[in-house]
Amino acid sequence: MLCLGLSGGLDKIHENPLDLPKTFLHDGAAVLVRDGRVVAAVEEERLNRIKHSNKFPSSAIRYCLATAGVKLHDIDRIAFYATEAYCNAMLERLLVSQPDISIPMDAKLLLRKLLAQEFGTEVEESRLSFVHHHHAHAASAFAMSGFEQSLILAVDGGGDFLSGVLAVGSGTEITELASFPENNSLGLFYLEAIRYLGYGLFDEYKVMGLAPYGDPAPYRELFGQFYELLDNGSYRVHLDRIGPTLLRNIQVRRKGMPFTQQHRDVSASLQEALERIMFHILQHYRKSTGMKRLCLAGGVAHNCTVNGKLLYSGLFEDIFVQPAAHDAGCALGAALMVSSDLGMPAPRERLQDVYWGPDIGSERAVERELSAWAGHLDVERHDDVAASAAGWMADGAVIGWVQGRSEFGPRALGNRSILADPRPASNKDRINAMVKKREGYRPFAPSVLEEDANEFFELPDGKREFPFMNFVVRVRDPKRNVLGAITHVDGTARLQTVSRRTNPLYWDVISAFKERTGIPVLLNTSFNNNAEPIVDSVSDAITTFLTTDLDGLVIGPFLIKKRTTGLDDWTALAISLPAYVSLHRVRAFTAEDRQETVCEIRRGHSNRNSVRISHDLFDLLMRIDGEAVLGSLLDTITPDRSEREALMKELLGLWEQRCVRLRPPRATRAIGSGAGHAEAESERATMGVV
Q1: Topology given in CATH for the domain delimited by 2-81+84-130
Q2: Which CATH topology does 573-663 take?
Q3: 3-class SS letters over 429-451
Q4: Alpha-carbon distance 121 to 93, whole Å?
Q5: What is the homologous superfamily of the domain 134-326 according to CATH?
Q6: Catalytic residue, candidates 26, 133, 134, 376
Q7: CA 6 to CA 29: how far, in whole Å?
Q8: What is the DSSP letter of 607?
Q9: Do 30 and 2 form a contact (C-beta atoms < 8 A)?
Q10: What is the mean predicted confidence (pLDDT) over 201-220?
Q11: CATH architecture classification, 363-562
C-alpha cells in the first residue's frame, strides 16, 4: 500500500506566487509511505533551492516516486495537508483579492489539474484526500513516537481556521480534546512580537537564540498585558495589543540595526511568556488525562528552549518531538493518516533517524561531478575520510561534510553539515561571519557520541538519546569553558546525540576527533549560506563550498580543497538563470529630483528581493538562452580584460546570493553515451537534479 503526503503551494516555480496568507502554503514537501513505513521524504526547498518553498512540490514528488521505482498511477492514496473546506475558502479569498486569476476555484480539481500537468496522469477523485492540518501534525508525532498512549500538542501559526489542537493518542487512534482558534495563536503571538525586533516570518528561532542574552524582568509586566491564563488549561492572547504597546514602550529595531539591551530583554520576556502559556496548558492536561508521555508537533514545537524546560521539569516521563515539526511534517502526517485509514498504520516504533532524502549517488557519480570542477577543486580519495576529516578539524579547519541520504526537516544531522572543533569560542564568530553571514550571537549545536553524552551534558535520569536537536540542555559546568564554540551564553546547547547504529560514518568522524583531542563532540551546523536552503546534491555542496570561506569539503570518500583560480577558470564555466529569478529594467528615482533607468535581478516576482546590477551585466544575462558558456557570452559584451574581470566579480556576487547558477558546461559534465550515460541520468533523477 503506497500513500503519498503533500504540503506546499499551488503554483509552479516559474509562476507568480498566489496571494494567500503567509501562514499557509509554505514548507512544501512530499513523503511516500509504503505499508506504514517511510520510503522517501524531502522538502521541495532542497530541490528547487527556494527557502521555505511555497511552490507545488513537483520535484519532491518525483524524487519520492523515483526512490520507490513507481509511477504516480501506482500510488493508492494522495493526501494534502489541509481540509478541502479550508483550501476552498483560501481560493475564494484569492479570487476576491485577484479577480483576474485563472485557476479552478475547487481545491480538489486544482490539485488534480496540477498533478496531471506535472506527471501526465489523471488522478481519480477517490485517490485524493484532504486531511485536517493539525491532525496531520499530531499524527506525524504520535505515529513516530513509539508510544502506545500519550498526550499530543500540535501548535503553530495557523491552518484549517485553527492554530493548534490538544489530543490523546492511544494505539492507532487520536482523539481531539481541545482546539485553539486562529486568534489565540501562539505562533502568531511570537511572530507579532518579533516584528518590533526587526524580524519576521521564519525568524522565530533567531529570537529564541537572542533571549538568553536578556532579562525578562523589565518587560514581564508589559508582556503580561498580552495574554491571560484561564481555568482548565485555557488561555487567551491579545494579538491586537502587542504592536501598539511595544511601539509606546520600546525603541523599535529595524532590520540590520544593532541590538540594544532593551531588544534582548524583550526577547527574554517573549520567550518567558510562551513558556508560561505552554506549561499552563500541559500541566492541566497532564493532570486531567493522566498521560505520562507527551508528543509535540507544529511550528512552535521547534522552540527547543521550551522543549528543554519541559524535559527538565519532570512533568512527563518521556517527550517526543517530531523532528520536522513545521508544515513539511504535515506531509508525513497526511501520508501516515491515509495509510492507517487503508489498514496500514505505522508500526509502534520510536523514530531513530530521518535520512529519507536524496542520496549523493555512487562513488563513481560523485567522482564524475568533482572531476568536472577540476579547474577549481583539488580532490583526493581516502579510504578513511573520517580520520582525515578529524585531523583537518583538530588543526583548525571548518569543513563541509556530505554523505549518504539527506535529512528530512530543518536540521542537518550529520549528512549535510558544516563541522568544526567545538572548543575555541572564536569558531562561533568565525563560522557566523565566513559562512552564514548572520548575527554573531547565534549559537551552534553540538553533536556528541551517544555513549559520552552524559559526561558533557546534564541529561535527565535514564535519557541518553537525543538524535534530532529538539532539546536545549545544560552543558555541565566543568565542560562549558572546554566547549566554548557550542555553549550558549546561558550555559546550554541544542544537543544531538549520535548513534553508531543509525549513522556509523558520522559516529566515526566524531570518534576519530575524540582520538585526536579527547573530545567526543563536534560543532555541527547546517551546510548552507544565508541565501539558500541546506544543500542536498553534490552540485549544491560544491557551489556552497566555492562561495564561502570553508577550509575543506568531504563528499563520500573524497577530500576536497579549493584551487587558486583566475579569470580563465571562471569564464570556462556555464551560466544559467534559476527558474525563480527574473530580470527587470525599470525607471526609478535614484535621488529626490533624479530619475534613471536601472537594472535589477529579482528572486521571485517581488522587488522586495531584488539586487541592483550594472547595465552591462543585465545585457549579458539577457543573452542567456538556457545555458551558455560564460567566456563566449563575455565576448559579446567586451574584449577588455579589466572590464571582463569587473563583470566576473559582479557575477560571483550574484552567484553567492543564488541569483545565477554557475557550473561546468554540459560537455564537461557528460560521461559519454550508452549504458554509462543512462546510469548517470538515473542517478541524477534520483538525486532530484533532472
Answers
A1: Nucleotidyltransferase; domain 5 (3.30.420)
A2: Outer Surface Protein A; domain 3 (3.90.930)
A3: HHHHHHHHCCCCCCCCEEEEEHH
A4: 29
A5: ATPase, nucleotide binding domain (3.30.420.40)
A6: 26
A7: 6
A8: G
A9: no
A10: 95
A11: Alpha-Beta Complex (3.90)
Cβ atoms within 10 Å of 619's Cβ, excluding its own: 14
pLDDT tens-digit readout, 613-637: 999 999 999 999 999 999 999 999 9
Q: Do domains 134-326 and 573-663 have the same CATH topology?
A: no
Q: Tell me whether residue 26 is one of the annotated catalytic residues.
A: yes
Domain ranges of the chain: 2-81+84-130, 134-326, 363-562, 573-663
CA distance linking residue 117 with residue 111, whole number of Å: 10
Angle between helical axes of 615-622 and 641-656 (0-180°, round to 10): 80
Contact call for residues 105 and 87 (beta carbons, < 8 A):
no
Q: Is residue 129 classed as helix, strand or coil in its secondary structure?
A: strand
Burial class (CB in 10 A: 0-12, 13-18, 19+), 399: buried
Per the DSSP assignment, residues forming a β-bridge with 173 are 170
pLDDT band at 11 (very low <50, low <70, confident <90, very high): confident
Q: Which three cell numbers stand for residue 451?
A: 555513549
Measured from the Cβ of residue 569, the count of other Cβ atoms closer than 10 Å reads 14
Whole-number CA gyration radius for the chain: 25
pTM above 0.70, yes or no: yes
Q: What is the pLDDT of residues 503-547, one digit of tens each?
A: 999 999 999 999 999 999 999 999 999 999 999 999 999 999 999
In this structure, how many other beta carbons lie within 10 angstroms of the beta carbon of residue 567? 14
E strands, 238-315, in order? 293-297
